[in-house]
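How a chain folds remains the central question behind the approach discussed here. The record that follows shows the chain in one-letter code together with its fold in token form:
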Amino acid sequence: MKRTVGRFVRGIGVVGFSVLGMVLVAVLVALRHIMETPQPLESYLPGLAQIYRWRRGHIFYKVDGDEGASPLVLLHAPGIGASSHEMRHLVEPLAQQFRVYAPDLPGFGLSDRPHMDYSAETYITLLESFLRDVVGQPATLLASGLSNNYAVAVAQCHPTLVERLVLISPSSLFQREQSPAIRSDLMRVPFLATLLYSLVSTHLALRYRASRQRTAASNVQAADIDYLYAASHQFGAEHAPLALMAGKLETDVSAQFASVQQPVLMIWGAQALNKLRALTDQHELSTHTKIELIKDAGAAIHEEYPASVVSNVLEWFAPSSGEEIGEKAETSVPGAPETGTVPQPLSGEAIAAKAEPVEAVEDTAQPVEQAAQTQIEAREQEQRPVPTVEVYCVKCKKKTPMQDVEEVKTKNGKPAIRGKCSICGTGQFRMGRLVP
């Protein structure tokens, strides 16, 4: 009996010392976090740095690309150390075709991080205001993580602001589990919240989280972890992530997604898709949805395989090869049969009825001179050199001269240029007209 009691007491002592040791380690980590805050932080994205003065704080964003190009807004996922830096590999190649906007969401990156009640509605309202006040015209939204849900909510509630959706591994659209209430209760205790955030924002924890979103830990660069560390060690940087861990940033938009009318492009990593079973339920997908699968990729496809993401986006915007390009009203012949119909022979009476009276021509020399002049102008037009067009090649990863250049129109009627890379032969596409 004494031996049993002795073992029990020793066990309690070991557990007690272990708990005490863990608490001391957590306190030391928290103290180190406080001492190393703030860290130097700047945006490495290309483009012009701007500030949007939103009613709940200043929003930092970068804008790049031709002002006349179609707008494309890149939305990073909320997370520990999150910012628009997540889209660093997409801005430059997409800016060759679009007017690209890359904002830092409230509470993240270089945007203001006020101590307020963060929720999904916070980011939905911010996105709506940003599209109205900054972009000013219907835009395409490219989102990742929980930002997919915010993009879908805005597209469904405000369809005039959103033209298309590009969703990167949108597993959050199909996960219906509610966060346990205890998580929210724990986040309300300041001491526990501070300790928890200090632990999950260490280099080790950030690397572990980043590696889980990729196919291999070797794909995680040390510089990227350093940036996450700097972004998570700013004054007020803990407020939004703690709201995320408490489940306050989650929102179920499955019903809204089913009724979205805009075209949707889903780009999935094979590993992320394999972990999701709800996608097999086809009635949850919008009828306007196209799915692209990238093999050997995790959830962070845009960071592992940015060239594939850019290629999928450009091909989705480009008109199909079998589709007629141009304005049919200017090139079609009046009275011609529609595509797929078989023309019927006309009777003599019908021909006579359709024929128009022809006025007699007194002087035939003038029409001959006009025809000759037309032939000369056509020959000069053929001999006129085609202007050199340089477009970003997703395979060469640089601007290259485009071959076989032709002017086309996208499915929504906007002018564009299509051709192929003069170096590797990869198809190229750019919004805008061919300027001589």
